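User: Please predict the structure of the protein below. I'd like the answer in structure-token form so I can feed it into my own downstream comparison script.

Assistant: Understood. Taking the following sequence of 170 residues as input:
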Amino acid sequence: MKWMVILLFGWFLQGCATLESKPIKPASSLIIPTQWQAQGRVGMSMDNRNQNIGFVINAKNQDYTLKLSASLGLGQIDIKSNTQGLWIDGKIIESNLEQWMSDEFGWYFPIQRLAPILFQHKQSVDDEWQVKIISYQQINGVNYPKIVRLNHLTKAIKIKLLINEVNELK
């Protein structure tokens, strides 16, 4: 009797393994809103070093504010980019965000490319990054990426984005 239960359970598990799960194929919008907000977490892996950072971004055209927060809320960095330059915690910086992040953290994320990923579901950002959207979620009736993986093509930088919220602002 015991062997029959184990055998039936094994067949059940084998049947579950053959079920096909299809990812959601969202219809991507061609329009990136002029104002939007997103928040989530960034997990980075580089040279056997891992780092997790929370983020909130508010964008309006090419200008944005970005808040980065360490795990457990232990520290926050406020970043602002506009036509006047890049501001870190209220002080103007003489470099761009990519260079500042590379100097500060040893890695960077192409933040200007986030909107095409979120709103147009772009799987290929540019020649430096390989982008793969792993899963989607529905927020306010619209499909957005939930998990996005980015691999730098020439540096050992791997990034996993976990998107918790996306809002188009008016």
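That's the full token string. The beta strands are 35-46, 49-60, 63-70, 76-82, 85-88, 91-93, 129-139, 142-152, 157-168.
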